[in-house]
Each structure stands twice: as structure tokens, then as C-alpha cells.
Specification:
By secondary structure, this protein is α/β, with parallel strands linked by helices. It folds into 2 domains: 42 residues; 165 residues, Protein tyrosine phosphatase superfamily (Protein-Tyrosine Phosphatase, Chain A, Alpha-Beta Complex). The protein has 9 helices and 5 strands. Strands 3-2-4-1-5 form a 5-stranded mixed beta sheet, with helices on both faces. Helix 2 packs antiparallel against helix 3 and helix 7 runs parallel beside helix 9. The chain starts with 9 loop residues before the first helix and ends with a strand. The relative contact order is 0.15.
């Protein structure tokens, strides 16, 4: 007879002791526990595989936010990889929970045309972004942020999902971005460069144009973007 799995210990999970822990973080704990129990149970290979698929889908998320909301988002999601798109004069300190190799700081301004005294997004920035995202192990969420969470970060999130889905539908990804964030206005130059780097033949540019400009706000609300299903 199979040994009964132990009940989930909410005390060990520390949920009552951490009232600020988000529902998403709690869900990750529950799924990890359920996955461990399924793997240890005899004749449950299919269920274990199913649990792994659910866990991977939920954890492999890209979260987008502003600089001001970065610490809270890291605490809420348990993210261990961060992409920052900020100019070099930005007052950015790497969060203590993020190791140097897991933090990519792309120092550029939110412009699409050359301006004196400003750093225009270049191919090297986009190539670094794509390489970093492809190295992301997807064992915890990835956070992408800029100053306001409106333009540079939303462009980087769109580019990242396209890079992780070589055969994905660019319009579907752009539509998912709009559904997730009514304020998203992706930086046009970042998208155009990525379109060339990823050899999408203009489809990424057209897809972003199709969703139009977002609602104008000084700071966007955080949102998440799935990396699959497009």
C-alpha cells in the first residue's frame, strides 16, 4: 500500500508569518510541494509530469514594472533575474537578492532618434538582452523594468517573448502585451533592432504598430506576460 503523503504544513510555509507574501509566491510554494509529493508517489509518473508542466508554465513568467516598484516586485514574485533599462545617471542599486550575473543593466535612454547627450538604443543592447533572456533558466520569474514601466521595459518584454518563441505569432504576442498593460508603448527603436536581429522581416514592427499607443501615464502598473501560448 502506498504511503500517504504528508499534509501541507502552512506553518513551515510561513504564510501566517509573512502577510506581505503575495498569492503568486504562495502558489509557487504549493506547486513545489505538490510536485514533490507526486514524484515520490509510486505509479504517478504522468501526474508528476503534469505538475511539472503547470509549475513551469506559472513560474516562467516575465514581470514588468517601474523602477520604484522593483523591490516590491522582487519580494512578491521571488524573481532571481532582473533586466534594467535605465540611463547611466539613474539612481540604481542592484537588489541584494539578485546576484551580479543575474542582473543585466542596459544603459540607454528612452529615445528612438539620435539626441545630443542621450544614449540611443543600439544593436549591442538588444543582443545583450536576447542573450541574457535565453540564458534565463526559468526556475523563477524574470523582472524587466525601466524608469516608468511604459516604453523601454515593455519593448524589452515583447522582444524577450519573441526571442523565446522563434515560431511565435508576433501579432499574438503584441496583443497579449496590450491585454496585460493598457499603458504599454514599446520603444520603437528597440523593437525595430530586435526585428532585424531575430530576422522577423518586419513582423515585430508591424505587430507593435497594430496595438497603437498606450494610455499616457507617468508610471505604469506592474503586469506579467506569459512566454508561451502565442
Amino acid at each position: 500500500m502506498a504511503k500517504a503523503a504528508p499534509a501541507f504544513d502552512w506553518g513551515t510555509a510561513q504564510v501566517p508569518l509573512l502577510p506581505a507574501l503575495s498569492a503568486l509566491a504562495i502558489l509557487y510554494r504549493l506547486m513545489a510541494w505538490a510536485k514533490a509529493q507526486l514524484r515520490s508517489h509510486p505509479n504517478c509518473g504522468a501526474l508528476a509530469a503534469f505538475a511539472h508542466a503547470i509549475e513551469t508554465q506559472e513560474i516562467a513568467m516575465i514581470h514588468v514594472c517601474s523602477l520604484a516598484r522593483l523591490p516590491d516586485m522582487i519580494a512578491r514574485t521571488g524573481a532571481r533575474h532582473v533586466v534594467s533599462l535605465l540611463s547611466d545617471e539613474a539612481n540604481l542599486a542592484r537588489p541584494a537578492s539578485i546576484t551580479p550575473e543575474n542582473h543585466l543593466w542596459l544603459q540607454l535612454h528612452d529615445i528612438s532618434e539620435p539626441q545630443e547627450g542621450f544614449v540611443l538604443p543600439q544593436a549591442k543592447h538588444v543582443e545583450e538582452l536576447i542573450a541574457f533572456v535565453r540564458r534565463w533558466p526559468r526556475e523563477a520569474p524574470l523582472i524587466i523594468h525601466c524608469y516608468a514601466g511604459v516604453s523601454r521595459s515593455t519593448a524589452a518584454a515583447f522582444v524577450s517573448v519573441c526571442a523565446l518563441n522563434p515560431g511565435g505569432d508576433e501579432r499574438a504576442i503584441a496583443a497579449a502585451l496590450r491585454r496585460a498593460s493598457p499603458t504599454a508603448t514599446p520603444n520603437a527603436r528597440i523593437v525595430a533592432i530586435a526585428d532585424e536581429v531575430l530576422e522577423r522581416k518586419g513582423r515585430m514592427v508591424k505587430a507593435v504598430r497594430s496595438i497603437g499607443l498606450g494610455i499616457m501615464l507617468s508610471e505604469a502598473l506592474p503586469f506579467r506576460l506569459e512566454i508561451s501560448g502565442h
